[in-house]
TrEMBL record:
Segments crossing the lipid bilayer: 41-59, 169-189
Descriptive protein name: Uncharacterized protein
UniProt KW keywords: Coiled coil, Membrane, Transmembrane, Transmembrane helix
Region (Disordered): 198-222
Coiled-coil region list: 106-157
Domain of life: Bacteria
C-alpha cells in the first residue's frame, strides 16, 4: 500500500516536472548565449545559477522570498528575450540609419544640381561677351548630368524596410513563447512546492510509549544467562496504553484538580484552543510542525481538542502544566487575535 501511495505521488508530480524541465532547458539555451556574449566564458554559470536561485525562491512559501523570486525571474527572462529580439532591433536601427543617409544624399545632390545650373547660366552669359568659356561649360554640363542621374536613381529606389511583417511577427511570437515558458516554469515549481507540503499528522490519542511498552531489543551476544522477555501481543500493548491513559500520575492529577480552582476555566480552554487554531491557520502550518518547532507533545494537543468530550465521559484530559505551556507559547507568537 505504501509503494502504491509513493508511486501515485510521483505520478502526480510527473506533469509538473516535465513542464519545468522543458521550459528551463529552452530558456537556458538563449540565456547562456546572452550571458556568454556579454560576460565571457563564465556566462553559462551566470545563466544557470540565476535560474536555480529563481526556482529555489519560488519553491519557498514566504511572501518576501517570492517577491525576490519575481525580480530574479524577470532578470533571468531578460537575456532570452533580448537574444530573440536582437535581430529585429538591429534591423530597425539599420533601417533608420539607411533612411537618414538616403535623405541627406538627396538633399545634397539637389543643392549641387542647383549650383551647377546657376554656374552654367553664368558661363553662357560670359561666353557671349568673350571666348574661352567652352571648357567650363562642358565640365559643368557633364557634372550636372551625373548629379541628375544619381538623384533620379535615389528617388526611384524605395526606402529600406527593417523587416517584413512576417519576420516581425515571428520575433514577437518567439518573445511571447519565452514569457509563457517562464510563467509555466514558475507555476510548475509552485505546484511542486504545494505537493511537497507535509500531510497533517492524525491526532494522537495515546501518550509516549514507556520503557515497559517498548518491544524488547535483540539481546543476542549479551550472554546466555540473560533472560529475554517475551514480545507482548498487540492486545496487551493496547490494554496497557489505555490503562495508563485512564489513570494519570499523581502530579497530573494535582494539575487537573487546578482546573476547578480558577486557574483555567472552561471558557479559557475554549479560547486557548481557538487561538491555537487561528495561529496554525495564519502561519499555514500543521499541528505536527507546531509540535516539532515548539517541543510540544502531540498528545497534549489531542487532549486539548477533545477536552469537552473526555471531561463529559469522565476520562483524563489535558493537564494544567500543558495548558500553561501552550498559553505561554501562543502568547509569545505575534498574530492578529484577541488576547487569550
Amino acid at each position: 500500500m505504501r509503494d502504491k501511495t509513493t508511486t501515485t505521488r510521483y505520478l502526480a508530480k510527473l506533469p509538473a516536472l516535465v513542464v519545468l524541465t522543458g521550459a528551463i532547458a529552452l530558456l537556458q539555451l538563449h540565456a547562456i548565449q546572452f550571458w556568454t556574449e556579454f560576460v565571457g566564458p563564465m556566462g553559462w554559470a551566470w545563466a544557470v545559477l540565476l535560474e536555480v536561485v529563481a526556482l529555489w525562491l519560488w519553491y519557498q512559501r514566504q511572501l518576501a522570498r517570492r517577491a525576490l523570486a519575481l525580480v530574479t525571474s524577470v532578470l533571468a527572462l531578460t537575456g532570452p528575450v533580448y537574444t530573440v529580439c536582437e535581430p529585429l532591433v538591429e534591423e530597425w536601427q539599420a533601417a533608420s540609419h539607411v533612411d537618414a543617409g538616403r535623405e541627406l544624399r538627396i538633399e545634397r545632390l539637389t543643392q549641387e544640381a542647383a549650383r551647377l545650373e546657376e554656374s552654367l547660366a553664368t558661363f553662357r552669359d560670359n561666353s557671349e561677351a568673350r571666348a574661352g568659356w567652352l571648357t567650363p561649360i562642358q565640365e559643368a554640363q557633364a557634372r550636372l548630368t551625373e548629379v541628375d542621374a544619381e538623384l533620379a536613381e535615389l528617388l526611384s529606389t524605395p526606402p529600406a524596410e527593417a523587416m517584413t511583417w512576417r519576420q516581425q511577427a515571428l520575433v514577437v511570437m518567439q518573445a511571447l513563447a519565452l514569457i509563457i515558458f517562464q510563467l509555466s516554469a514558475v507555476l510548475a515549481i509552485t505546484s511542486l512546492s504545494r505537493m511537497g507540503r507535509p500531510v497533517p499528522a492524525p491526532a494522537v490519542s495515546g501518550g509516549p510509549t514507556s520503557s515497559g511498552d517498548r518491544l524488547p531489543e535483540d539481546t543476542a551476544g549479551l550472554g546466555e544467562d540473560v533472560a529475554v522477555p517475551s514480545t507482548p501481543s498487540a492486545e496487551a500493548v493496547t490494554f496497557n496504553l489505555e490503562h495508563r491513559l485512564a489513570k494519570p500520575s499523581m502530579s497530573e492529577t494535582n494539575d487537573e484538580s487546578e482546573l476547578s480552582k480558577g486557574h483555567f476555566e472552561y471558557a479559557d480552554i475554549v479560547a486557548l484552543r481557538q487561538a491555537l487554531e487561528q495561529l496554525l491557520e495564519e502561519r499555514g502550518t500543521t499541528q505536527a510542525a507546531f509540535c516539532r518547532d515548539h517541543g510540544v507533545s502531540p498528545r497534549d494537543l489531542s487532549l486539548l481538542r477533545r477536552h469537552e468530550a473526555r471531561s463529559a465521559a469522565g476520562e483524563r484530559t489535558i493537564s494544567i502544566t500543558a495548558l500553561e505551556r501552550l498559553a505561554s507559547i501562543i502568547d509569545a507568537q505575534p498574530m492578529s487575535r484577541a488576547a487569550t
